[in-house]
Write a structure and sequence with these properties.
alpha+beta; eight-stranded antiparallel sheet; two-stranded antiparallel sheet; 1 helix; elongated; signal
């Protein structure tokens, strides 16, 4: 039995199949459908500028049972925090929510405004100047 004619026939068959697959119109290319996910799931989201600095973040912070609050109470619940930051990493806007309330801070170079409502206590608005002057407004 001569193997040479068989090898020539197989080589020609392979060449023909290769030519067909290369020359065939774009029907052999399967276009991936554009997929737009309706939901993005993550533990945190950060938006950065061209220099790689974080300018906005959205994250879930774990509970801190040993954290001492300014009013003397102990513990801080799990918090969802949204921050908008300056190019110098200063948080000019903070919005937070917990199981027992929420808070909003609007700040800048000259001071900040803080709105807080947690637990059964009345809401509080704190006005704090850069020099430390402070005014609390309650209903």
């Amino acid at each position: 039995m001569k193997i040479q004619p068989v090898m020539i026939a197989l080589t020609l068959a392979n060449a023909a199949m290769l030519s067909y697959s290369v020359m065939r119109p774009a029907a052999n290319v399967v276009a991936a459908p554009e997929v737009i996910s309706p939901v993005v799931r993550a533990h945190a989201l950060e938006i950065v500028d061209e220099q790689g600095r974080t300018r906005a973040e959205l994250r879930v912070l774990p509970a801190q049972p040993d954290f001492k609050m300014p009013d003397g109470t102990k513990g801080y619940p799990e918090t969802v925090l949204f921050r908008l930051l300056t190019s110098q990493n200063g948080p000019n806007v903070k919005l937070a929510t917990t199981e027992d309330g929420a808070g909003l801070v609007l700040g800048g170079d000259s001071g900040y405004i803080q709105l807080i409502k947690r637990g059964p206590a009345n809401p509080v608005m704190n006005l704090v100047a850069k020099d430390g002057r402070h005014r609390a407004i309650q209903p």
